[in-house]
Amino acid sequence: INDKMEIGKRHISVSTCGHIPGIRRFAKDFPQINLALSLHSARNEERDKLVPLNLKYPLEQLSKAVKDYIDSAKRKIFIEYVMIEGINDRSSDAGKLAEWIKETHEKKYFTVNLIAYNETGKKYKSSSAEKIQDFQRLLLLRGIETTIRKSLGSEIKGACGQLALGK
After folding, report:
1. CATH code, 9-156
2. Cβ atoms within 10 Å, residue 61
3. What is 53-89 written as a DSSP string?
4. Domain locations in the chain as residue ranges
């Protein structure tokens, strides 16, 4: 894609929810392409529910794969973190995320992207803007580069995670 579209490899990102063999292959085959990890929780018990693949590749194994990726590719990794009210948005969750990053590799190799959950009317609700900003502040205080991603399309139910058949 980068040759035909004339897009530099460093301007392409691939997202994973933590498939470790895929991360290892990606580091070897595509070291110049950005990797984004959909983490959503740094607690196995929560991540098991949010990302069922965590049952197969828990955070301890994922941490090792991410460390190996950084060591091999010499690239920063983007942590995608969808903010869900009462599930993963507490100050203790920010602390746990900072701890996971610190245990995995140097902080300079991570950027955390906080993303408001796009509600679908099901069981989860998005964290408030204030709560997301507080979470960001806690990570920044720990020296972790953190952004709040702007989501587009939620008002028409066309944002990430919202595309579904209506009844």
Report:
1. 3.20.20.70
2. 13
3. GGGTS-HHHHHHHHHHHHHHH---EEEEEEEBTTTS-
4. 9-156
User: What does the DSSP assignment read for 15-49?
Assistant: EES--HHHHHHHHHH-TTSEEEEE---SSHHHHHH
What is the torsional sign of CA 114, 80, 101, 69?
A: negative
10 three-state secondary structure: helix
Query: What pTM did the predictor assign?
Result: 0.86
Question: CA–CA separation, 80 vs 27, rounded Å?
Answer: 18
The answer for 4, left when phi > 0, alpha when psi is -120 to 50, beta otherwise, is alpha
Structure tokens, 1? 């894609």
Q: State the pLDDT confidence band at 151, using cuts at 50, 70 and 90.
A: low
Q: Which two tokens stand for residue 87?
A: 């599930």
| DSSP, res 98 | H
With a cut of 90, say whether residue 154 has pLDDT above it.
Answer: no
Q: Quote the CA–CA distance of 127 and 104 in Å, as a whole number.
A: 26
Q: Mind listing the pLDDT tens digit for each residue in 47-64?
A: 999 999 999 999 999 999
92 vs 124, residue with greater confidence: 92
As given in the structure block, the two tokens for residue 163 are 């595309």
- Mean pLDDT for all residues in the chain: 88
